[in-house]
Structures are given as structure tokens and as C-alpha cells.
Write a structure and sequence with these properties.
Elements (H helix, E strand, L loop, with lengths): L10 H12 L1 H11 L6 H4 L2 H13 L10 E6 L10 H8 L5 E3 L5 E4 L2 H9 L11 E8 L4 E3 L11 E4 L4 E9 L4 E8 L1
Parallel strand pairs: 4-8
Antiparallel strand pairs: 1-4, 2-7, 3-6, 5-6, 7-8
Helix pairs in contact: 1-2, 1-4
Length: 188
Amino acid sequence: MNKQSFDNLTEEEKKAIYIWTNSTLEYRHIKRIFQGNYLDDFLKEYLPTANLLRGLFEKYIDNTDKKKSIFRGDILEDENNEVDDIFFVFKNNHVISQTIELENSILSFSYDIQTAENSIFNSSKNIEQKKAAVIYEICSRKSVYLDISNFSIFKNENEILVQPKLKFRVIDITQHSDYIIHCKLDEV
């Protein structure tokens, strides 16, 4: 199948992107489907949306600026979240040159590091604003990435969709702030 320009989105695909960017709750339901939790009846209603989103990467050509890094902020749920040693623990678990795979879901990134920081501070997982977090920066990309800014509710977030199960090499880890680690990645 020949890939198409992202300008040729169908109305159903635009609606799927709208749902993905519209509500934190719907976003989390769709992520659960990508992670394999789609067996309960409630989540089945989101399965068509998840399938449309997954299919975007096979149907469309990359429409991002590959010269620009993209950023994502995540709360570190797997760590003990003790701020005093979070950088040490993260750096021991993520060695430079190590290959890692981000979570098994479509992920939202941004061209803007401030948007990644805001996603940490506005996360429902970070109510007390004191959870340890990481900003992932993808510096070089090889696969299809999709800039959905024109179809997103929050156009100013410059949102980029990243497909599940991509592999990355850790190229640098620094402490961004007291609570935030900065991890630079190259896709392998």
C-alpha cells in the first residue's frame, strides 16, 4: 500500500485524533487498550478509535520536521519516587548506550520542551507536584511520526504521535531540576 500525505485524513481519523487529544479520561482508556487491557465491556467502545489511531502509522507518511527534537514528560511510577536519590536510581537503571523501549502504547510528544514540563505538572498522577519525573527527548528518528497539531484540540502543544514498541538508545541523562530527569534518546 502506498502511503498518503497526512493532509488526506478521513473524517473518522480526524475524530479519533480529536478524541485522543480532547479528554484525559478518554486518552487513558485508549492507552489501556494499546497496553492490552481491552477485554472489559466498557473499554470495547474505544477499540475502533484505538484501531484508527494505530493504523495512521501504516497509512500515512511522516509529516514531522526530523531535524527537531521532540519531548515527552512522564511521571516515574516504577521508581520509589524519593526525590533525594531519584537521579541516582534512574541513571543506574538506564545506562548510556543501553537500548530501551518506551511503553506499549501510542505516545504523545511535542516539539516544545515546555509542553513536556507542563504535562508533568498538570498530570493527575502528580497532584502534590512532588513526584519524580522524566523528560524524554528523542533526538533522531527513523520511523513514521505524525504531527497532529492541525487536528488537535490544543494546537499550541505541537503534538506528535509516536508509535508503540519503538526502540531507542540512551545517549545522555542529566538532572533537569530537583524533581525532573532529562533523558536523551536516538531511535535505533
